[in-house]
Amino acid sequence: MYIVTAKEMYGIDHYTMQELGVEGKLLMENAGRAICLKLENLIEKTSRICVIAGSGNNGGDGFVIARTLLNNNYHVHVVQAVPDEKITGDALYHKNLYKNCGGTVTVIKEAEIIRELVSDADIIVDAMVGIGIRGKLREPLAGIVRFLNQTEKFVVSIDIPSGLPADEGLTDFTAVEADCTFIVGAPKTSAFLEHSASFYGEWEMVSIGFPPLALRKYSKRMLWNEGNFQESMPKRKLNSHKGDHGRGLVIGGSTEMPGSIAMSVKAALKAGSGLITAATTEKVIQMIAPVSMESTFLALSEKNGYLANHTFPVDSYDAIAIGIGMGRYEETRDLVRYVLEQAKCPVIIDADGLYHIKSDLSMIKKRSDPTIVTPHPGEMAMLLDISVPELLKEPFRYAAEFAGKYNVYVVLKGKYTIITAPDGRQAVNTTGNPGLAKGGSGDVLTGISLAMAMQDQSIFEALCNACFIHGKSADLLVANEHSFYDLLASDVIKGITDVYRTFS
């Protein structure tokens, strides 16, 4: 499933109509009918439905929905929120069809009238404004939106809540706060932004006939879901051995934070690594060895309980993770630099490792082998020298620019984790829940990512699958035995088993 900007959606529309010859009227018909099939799960035959229609494709979809419901013997009425002259083209065609079938339309000029017109409605369908909005809504649309956000009636938006921008970068808007949204063709970027996602309510995508070729042609962003995981996750061969599944190295830990490296190591092993070595201080080794019996250990120099500069061979590993719980001292920065300069394999940089590369980002840009950074929003903002609100306003753009500039893969963690490749491809992970908002969750994801990076798949697929497994484990645990409150990072490691049991 692809994620699109407004411009990309227009490109897909144009390609489908002009290059393939599918008429706009048919696409509109497909959209309205597909939405009606979904809508009928929310309503009863006695339900009274009010469709508030605007101009353009969104309004046209509204007229198709109204006609389809009417023909299926539902009680439906259309309120037209724009003057008659604004309804043109395909939307006008479908308005006339609706009226020819006996439908009624009330045109309003003032927002106050809407209160009376929907007074007996059980369901309100918002089909006023689509993805083409420029700037803030004007009256009477703005007033209608304010009313809809105050009413207790169930509000369904078509494609996108009216007034909400489709793209990132815009925060000054007035938009419908829908109870649910039926998205047409492909999810829009704003469905995955912290400041705008909630306006959609519960959302579901409906297909209207856009060919996959068009979606691939115009979008570099996709939703990574169970289908993607099933398709790309490598199958284990019956005669495989531990060397086939990677020898990984995890560098980190300190006297104050021994658990972080322990969780990364255990997660890497549980996710399928062949061999994992924990490189840390002697004291930390003594602390974590009893709970990391399947791993091997490499004792590194220390100073005051933290890793110190130390040279050791790094050329015998298939992938390395560094930074977890290692501290922010000068000596540990030198260790990070040494590994990035010497390692000839994928390197994952997390936690304190991100702090260390900030002072000289050229150390990642110079690498020829894959480099992966896994920041949460605070760490990403730190790397970019911007505020967290600035980052969250345009996370896709900032992640893509950083990945391209420094030739790295970026895993920007959050409710909607964004995985970005150096070539600009992006994916949003669909799994996970608030139970992951706990210390140690990031350490577990780093371990899973290390394991995935050593399997027979591309680095981009590996990171997408790592995020999927991490979130899916949490989802299964909350569904079956845990709550958002008591779920721990160590539980997520155990839950990897159930994710793989569903994998076939």
From TrEMBL:
InterPro entries documented for this protein: CARKD, Nnr, Ribokinase-like, YjeF_N_dom, YjeF_N_dom_sf
One GO-annotated biological process of the protein: nicotinamide nucleotide metabolic process
Spans traversing the lipid bilayer: none
Domain YjeF C-terminal: 225-503
CDD domains reported in the protein's UniProt record: YXKO-related
Gene Ontology molecular function terms on file: ADP-dependent NAD(P)H-hydrate dehydratase activity; ATP binding; metal ion binding; NAD(P)HX epimerase activity
Cofactor: K(+); Mg(2+)
Entry-linked PROSITE patterns: YJEF_C_3, YJEF_N
Domain YjeF N-terminal, first and last residues per copy: 9-216
Substrates-to-products reaction catalysed: (6S)-NADPHX + ADP = AMP + phosphate + NADPH + H(+); (6R)-NADPHX = (6S)-NADPHX; (6S)-NADHX + ADP = AMP + phosphate + NADH + H(+); (6R)-NADHX = (6S)-NADHX
Keywords, alphabetical: ATP-binding, Isomerase, Lyase, Metal-binding, Multifunctional enzyme, NAD, NADP, Nucleotide-binding, Potassium
Residue positions binding K(+): 58, 126, 162
A Pfam match: YjeF_N
Entry binding sites for (6S)-NADPHX: 57-61, 130-136, 159, 325, 376, 443
Record note on cofactor: Binds 1 potassium ion per subunit.
Enzyme Commission number(s): 4.2.1.136, 5.1.99.6
Domain of life: Bacteria
Binding site for AMP: 413-417, 442
SUPFAM superfamilies linked: Ribokinase-like, YjeF N-terminal domain-like
HAMAP family: NADHX_dehydratase (MF_01965), NADHX_epimerase (MF_01966)
Assembly information from the UniProt record: Homotetramer.
Family the UniProt entry places it in: In the C-terminal section; belongs to the NnrD/CARKD family. Belongs to the NnrE/AIBP family.
Function as written in the Swiss-Prot or TrEMBL entry: Catalyzes the dehydration of the S-form of NAD(P)HX at the expense of ADP, which is converted to AMP. Together with NAD(P)HX epimerase, which catalyzes the epimerization of the S- and R-forms, the enzyme allows the repair of both epimers of NAD(P)HX, a damaged form of NAD(P)H that is a result of enzymatic or heat-dependent hydration. Bifunctional enzyme that catalyzes the epimerization of the S- and R-forms of NAD(P)HX and the dehydration of the S-form of NAD(P)HX at the expense of ADP, which is converted to AMP. This allows the repair of both epimers of NAD(P)HX, a damaged form of NAD(P)H that is a result of enzymatic or heat-dependent hydration.
Entry protein name: Bifunctional NAD(P)H-hydrate repair enzyme
Gene: nnrD
